Amino acid sequence: MGKIKIILADDHQILLDGLSSILELQEDICVAGIYTNGLAMYADIKNTMPCIALVDINMPGLNGHELTLKIKKEFPEIKVIALSMFDDITHIMQLIKAGASGYLFKNTNNDELLKAIRAVADGGTWFSAGVTDKVAAFIKAEKSRQYDPVAPALTGRELEILKLVAMEYSNAKIADSLFISERTVETHRKNMLRKTNHKNMVGLLKYAFDNHLL
Amino acid sequence: MGKIKIILADDHQILLDGLSSILELQEDICVAGIYTNGLAMYADIKNTMPCIALVDINMPGLNGHELTLKIKKEFPEIKVIALSMFDDITHIMQLIKAGASGYLFKNTNNDELLKAIRAVADGGTWFSAGVTDKVAAFIKAEKSRQYDPVAPALTGRELEILKLVAMEYSNAKIADSLFISERTVETHRKNMLRKTNHKNMVGLLKYAFDNHLL
DNA sequence: TAAAAAATACCTTTTACGGGGTATTTTAAT
DNA sequence: ATTAAAATACCCCGTAAAAGGTATTTTTTA
């Protein structure tokens, strides 16, 4: 069986050097290209046609997400492992949706790194422990946040206020519009946030639109 | 030509008495029903089958908007004139969309009231001066706010931040997620608001969704 | 290579919002 | 008629956000 051909992209040369030195020691892995930015990797990828592209997600120019999208679109058979400082769910979901087969943190130890590369080369996936936890929690939260038939509906007055919030009215202006006290508006807002378990009007409005309340 | 048959709904008896006494003096108008709430008017409307329903929009139980929707759905030929303390564009648009042929303020003088009733009975519409001004301004603002191809797009970083805002992240949390300073987040938010002429994140997010930026 | 744009970061002040409650009146439901 | 829910209004406090700027560095564009 041939060696696992891998290419690397990261804007930090030191990290590239470190990665490269680790990987070159492996009998079954060969590093076919090293790039300090996404554009360079993308420009050269049809020449290297690697099995795996290991990409830092935070690069200037073409970032890891954009690079992954492009790679998977043109070369779906090339697998991508994202490398990140972030443990933020937004980036994780973004890269997974873009088709990454793996997501590792930059502080991943060498052993896990190698395991991940081999698993992905073998057709599998590898996400750091924290990543899978976050994804599970995120999906769970999303499901409980999307259309929730059990959640108490908002009252007519609450929705009326929410519509004005959506129109960027301040509490004072809402109060003027509805001929009620600003305190009353504050209480309605507070009640809506509490009812729907949201932190702010942004989230609440999204909830209202998602549930066709507005 | 027959008299204009009209029915009235308002939760303030005094106002009903006043309206009724004015209208009964007119040779061409007859008051066929007087109700202190929307439900009562709705329940009786097929018995009265008036030409015009004059309805206060702020009533308990069935408010003027809901009442108008029901009336126009079941009896599209019955015309509705909304009567309101509000000069708020939300209610105005709401009632117009519900099919009201007129929108008057409660401080409208008798002369205008009669003119409105006659115009509407004649198949026309009648909106108080302030109403038409507000509607025009509102539509103009909406048009300039909806998909605006000339408006500068938001940058990649700005959109990244906006996505996190949409997820109810605080500035601090956004900063942590993106490994940048909270001040930087503040500046990006400020810049986006300024670019798109919005007052707050709520409006900006709506703009972003409307323009398919998110 | 130079210019422009984007990204970053900081400062101050003001305003608005969120979070913690309680209480009374009005309206709706039973 | 009674109870429950909704609507109203108030209080206090702390923090977040918005608004007003400026400045430097990095990246992108021409």
What does this structure look like?
Two copies of one chain form a homodimer. The first copy, chain A, is α/β, with parallel strands linked by helices. Chain A has two domains: 138 residues, Response regulator (Rossmann fold), CATH 3.40.50; 55 residues, Winged helix-like DNA-binding domain superfamily/Winged helix DNA-binding domain (Arc Repressor Mutant, subunit A). Chain A has ten helices and six strands, in the order E-H-E-H-E-H-E-H-E-H-E-H-H-H-H-H. A six-stranded parallel sheet of chain A has the order 2-1-3-4-5-6, sandwiched between helices. In chain A, helix 3 runs parallel beside helix 4 and helix 8 crosses helix 9. The longest helix of chain A is centred in the middle third of the chain and has 17 residues. Chain A is elongated and about 75 Å long. The relative contact order of chain A is 0.09. The model of chain A has no long low-confidence stretch (mean pLDDT 83). The interface between A and B is medium-sized, with 27 and 23 residues. The first copy, chain A, binds a DNA duplex (30 and 30 nucleotides) through helix 7 and helix 9.
Task: List key phrases describing it.
homodimer, 214 residues, alpha/beta, Rossmann fold, 2 domains, 55% helix, elongated, DNA-binding
